[in-house]
Every structure is written in structure tokens, then in C-alpha cells.
Amino acid sequence: MSHAISARGLARHFGHVIAVAGIDLDVPRAEIYGFLGPNGSGKSTTIRMLCGLLVPTRGTVTVLGHSVPRDAEIVRRKLGYMTQRFSLWDDLTVGENFDFMCRVYGLDRATRRERIASRLRDYDLAPLVKQRAGTLSGGQRQRLALGAATLHEPALLLLDEPTSAVDPQSRRDFWENLFTLVARGTTILVSTHYMDEAERCHRLAILDRGRIAAEGEPKQLARDIDATVIEIGNTDFVSARRALAAVAEVRSIAQLGNRLRVLMPRSAAEPERRLRDALAPDNAGASVERVGASLEDVFVAVTRLRNGANAAPERAA
Amino acid sequence: MSGLWRLLAVAAKEVRQLACDRITIGLIVGIPTIQLLLFGYAINFDVRGVSAAVLDQSQTSLSRRLLGDLAATQVLGTLRPAVSERELRELMQQGAAHVGIVIAPDIERRLADGNRAVMQILVDGSQPALENVAQGLGAMPLLQRRGTRAAARPVEILVAYNPEKRTAVQIVPALCGVILTMTMVIFTASAIVRERERGNLELLITTPVSPAELMAGKLLPYVVIGLIQTTLILVLGYWLFDVPVAGSLVDLYFGALLFIAASLSLGLLISTIARTQFQAMQMAIVIMLPSILMSGFMFPFEGMPAVAQGIAQVLPLTHFNEIIRGIVLRGAALADMRPELAKLAVFLLVMLSLAMARFRKRLD
């Protein structure tokens, strides 16, 4: 019972397409665990296997101490799930949606009243109680969905790209709400493709083509990155890019404002000098400086550096 | 010219989208094929093989020759002998016979007399087009070819259950079934598919709600809607078209309930196959067409070839039409309708099992 979720060798194929290619996963309790990955990396498929919506092709899953999909029905009572799409009822009001979800979870009258009132208050939905869900803004819908997913006070929340359709302020508020839930002991698994969201997670798994490419605390991942990150400024970007791309060890070049961020393998010797030499003909005055890795660097490093050492450097981040 | 290119681009995109939708492609071919087969092949105004009961009070060689002539026309199917007028009436009430033939005991004297009918044909006025059949039988030159003097009115035709021969009397009860089929099948099928399309189902199946609870909960409102529709049709039929209910209302509602359940289970099955509301609608139409045309609603069931009759047997509306016409028009009791009730019950169970087997709380 030490982990909220444990998976071993979890895989799922759709015909010839391998969506999840065998992953091991341990999600600690009362933390926010993030799945970071591009679209098609297997985030949704994994989440759906964890809640019993899809049967794994291979592998075992234990959720809250129960084997899934065998005990999926037991797990469903302790689990809250927010789908990628808004999946409450557009033609019901905020209050009606809450009431229906309470009844689906079999909450008695007194509990229903208390929970609905607290969700309306906590998620700023009280003024909208009589408004149809279809007329809400993206942020309001998302608060409604989170409120509905937590009505039965689940021990585990699975959130599948919950913030893909909302503005930055709503995202910040949303994460505040998640931390409040975690403080009360809820375990949260959240998938995202936003770096800033991934950085907020206690732990993180970076998914790439159905595999976990890296796993750990975001800060630790950045420290352990198997790459050297170098920032280059004060250059003509077009000619500098061309010059840098010609250096064999350069794995990725991304422009951030008026700086270029270059990733090279840690094994590359004297990276600053090599880059300065490469830039010298056209950009002698360029600044070349080794910097600390960001999560995005980690993401690029684990998804790109590992896959084919000869891959062409990325043109844009 | 760029307008034309844009138009063509829109058309090409439409074709590409259609090509992805296999069920729709199937229906593009399927619907006209079914229609053509139904209209061209199954629907037949030249009715043959009508079930008949015979009360031969004369039991003479002449009466047997008369019956032989009737059988030779092939308009009537097997002639079921009845021993009394009461038995004849009962056979008709149960729907086992749609035509009753009564031959007078003194057939030879009547034939000689020439002013009184030798034979009485009772027609079940609750069925469409049967009255024409009787007229045809009555106009036949029965016995004449044997050189006997022709009777002036050899055959007397009586229309039972609908003596005024009003079409409304035949149509109103049967319309009840047609309308129920439309709403029950289409409503349920699209109601469930809509939840799948909008993603509601993905959320619902991660909750503790069981498939049976989910389905029963979705169907229950439509059962009530079906009963309201039944009531509406019967009340309007009574007020506007003067069609009274001859049998018991309890029997009627029980029959309607069974039919509603059967139609809902069909809608449920469609909802587990269709991926979009559009597909569900088209599948419902595929059921609707034969239901309207082959169930005996518009055309006499007995006029159809054996294959079409076989298909009609699978349609719940065929059996409900028998039940509701029997109860509303002929004053039959449920006990008279046991075979039809049993067929509806079997249909319900089969559809429900198939739907339950297909519906899982999973996405794969």
C-alpha cells in the first residue's frame, strides 16, 4: 500500500500501433505526479488503462491496492477522472451536473447538499449554479469538471490534460486547487504538455513514444540531465544557427528571444571552445555561456538526444 | 473561377469524409435496395392465402363443391372448419382467421329460390384491403359453370369489427405502433450515441454506475413517453375519428408496454453499433421502412410472398399490429394473443441480450 499506483511492464497496442510500449510506474501517495509528453506519447492511453477503461495488452496495474482491470469496479468508487474533453452535460446546469454526479456515486441527501455547497464555494461556482454548463467559459467549465470529479472525495484523481483549453490565470488557479487537494491527502496523476505545469509536479515521468524516457523530481531531472546546455547571445542568428548545426555534437538548437540555447552531450569535450570556434568566422563577438538545464532541456535531451545521435538539430523549440 | 475551385474543394472534402464512414456507405446502397425490394416485391395488392374459417351448416355435396371452388381461387388459404357460429367468431377475434365463410343449411333451396344468399362472407374489417378480397370472392361466378341457375345474390358480405368500412378504424390503432417504433427506436438509439459522441459516456463509465443501471435509467423515461404517446393516439383516435376501444384498457396497455420495451431494446442495440447520431438515425430508418411496409400496417400481411412474411415475423411491429387491432377493434383479450405476445417477448430478450453483450464499461 506504499504507492497509490504501481504498474509493471504496462503495454497497450491498437492493432499494429503500439501506444504504450511497456512502462513501469510507481506513484507515491498524496503527491502530484505528472506525465509530460507530446501528443501521441501514450499519456491518455496509460491513464485510461489505470482507470480500467482500456485493458492492457500486457503488464500489471495496481491502483490503491487493487488489481486493475480485475477490480476496476472497486477502484472506480475511490477514483476521480477528468477527461481531456469536457464530459459533463452541456444541457444541464452547474447545480444539476453536481447533483447528478453525487447520485451516481450514491451519496446520501445530507452529504450531497454539503458537498455541492462546498464545491460551489471552493471553485467559485456559486453565482453560476443555475447556468447551463454549455454556456460556461473554459476556466469555469474546468472548475466545474474538477469539482464534479472530487464530489465523492476520491483518494486518487486522474486528470488527462486538464488545462489544455484554459487561459494562464485559470491554469494557475487550477493548480492552486490541486495543491489544496494534495494537502488533504489526495494523490493526483496529471498529464500535460506544458513545461510550467510539469515543473509544479512533485514527481514527473517524461513519456516518449509509449515509453518513460526519464522519471524523477523535476529539479533532480534538471540536475541529472545527460547534456550540457549552452546559451549563445550577441550573434546573427541565421548564420550562427548554420555554423552551430555543422558541429557534430550539437543535438538541439532553440531560439529563446535573442539567445540561442544549444544542447550537447555531456561527453562532448570543451563544449564552449568548440562552439566559439565554430562561430568565429561570422560571429566573433558572440557570448558563449554554460547555463543550468531547464525542464524543457531535459525533455529535449531525453526525447531527442537518446533517439539517434545523428538526428538533425531541431530548428525551433 | 476561384469560386468553382472552392466549391470543388468543399465537394472533394465531403466525399473524403463520406468515404471514411463505412456504415453510411453501406446505407447509401442498402436503403434504396431495401426500398426497391419492399415496394417491388413484397407489397402485393393481389392478396392470396388469406386465413379463413368455414362454418358449413349444409354439409352437402353442393356445399363441398362450393368450398372447393373457393379454395381453387387461391385467394383463401387453408380453410379451418368451425362447428358453430360462436367458434367462427372466436377464430376471427383471435386473428386466426380474417375471413369467415358461413354456408346456409338450406343451400339448395336458397340456390333454387335465387333471392336469398347461399353463402355469407364475414370480413375482418380491422385489416386493410380485406374487404376488397371479399368483394372479389362474392363476384366470382360460383357454381354457375355447372349449369345451375345463377342466384341473383349468391353471396352476402358482412364486414365485422368495422361495419362502416372506415379507413380510420384500420389506421388509428396500427398508427400507434408505427409512431411508437419511430420514437422509441430513434430516441433511444440517438440518446445513447449522443452521450458517446459528447464524451459523457467516458466519464460515466469511470463511475460506479453499472451498465444495467445506466441502460435501464436511460430507457425508463422513454417507456413513460411511449405510454403517453399511446394514450394520446387512442384519445385522439376516439375524439377525432370515433375509434373506440372494444377490448380492455389494461390488456391494451400491457401489450403496448411489451412492444415499447421491444422497440427500446432494438434502439439500445443500434446504439451499441452506431458511432454517431447520424449513423444511428440511418439504422433506425432501415428498421422503419420494412416496419411500415411489411407489418400489415398499410398492406395486407397475407399478400406478401413467404420470404417477406418471414422478414415481417422478425419485426416487432407486425405482432403489435395484430395485438392492438385485436384488442381495440375486435375486442380480443390478451389470452387470445398469446402467440404474438410470446414473439414480442422473445424479440425483447434477444435484443436486450445482444445489446448487453455489446455494451461494456470499457472503451475497447
Structure description:
Chain A is an alpha/beta fold. Helices cover 34% and strands 28% of the residues of chain A. Chain A is elongated. The two termini of chain A are 40 Å apart. Chain B has 364 residues and is of the alpha/beta class. Chain B has helices at residues 2-20, 22-42, 61-72, 85-93, 107-113, 130-138, 167-198, 200-204, 211-241, 249-273, 277-294, 306-314, 316-328, 338-358; strands at 50-56, 76-81, 99-103, 119-124, 155-160. Chain B has a five-stranded mixed β-sheet, sandwiched between helices. In chain B, helix 10 runs antiparallel to helix 13, helix 10 (249-273) packs parallel to helix 14 and helix 13 (316-328) packs antiparallel against helix 14. The radius of gyration of chain B is 25 Å and the shape is elongated. The mean pLDDT of chain B is 83. Chains A and B meet through helix 2 of A and helix 8 of B.
User: Major sheet of chain A: order of its strands?
Assistant: 6-7-8-3-9-10
Largest sheet of chain A: 6 strands, mixed
- Can you tell me the overall shape of chain A? elongated
Q: Strand tally of chain A, please? A: 14
Query: What is the residue-averaged pLDDT of chain B?
Result: 83
Helix tally of chain A equals: 11
Give the SSE order of chain B as H and E letters: HHEHEHEHEHEHHHHHHHH
What integer value in Å does the Rg of chain B equal? 25 Å
The share of residues in extended strands of chain B comes to: 5-15%
Ends apart, CA distance between termini of chain B:
47 Å
Q: What is the number of E strands of chain B? A: 5
Rg of Cα set of chain A: 23 Å
Identify the quaternary structure here. Answer: heterodimer
User: CA-to-CA gap between the ends of chain A?
Assistant: 40 Å
Strand order of the largest sheet of chain B: 2-1-3-4-5
Low-confidence stretches of chain A: 308-317
Output the structural class of chain B.
alpha/beta
Low-confidence stretches of chain B: none
Report strand % of chain A.
25-35%
Sheet bearing the most strands of chain B, described?
Answer: 5 strands, mixed
Question: How many individual helices of chain B?
Answer: 14
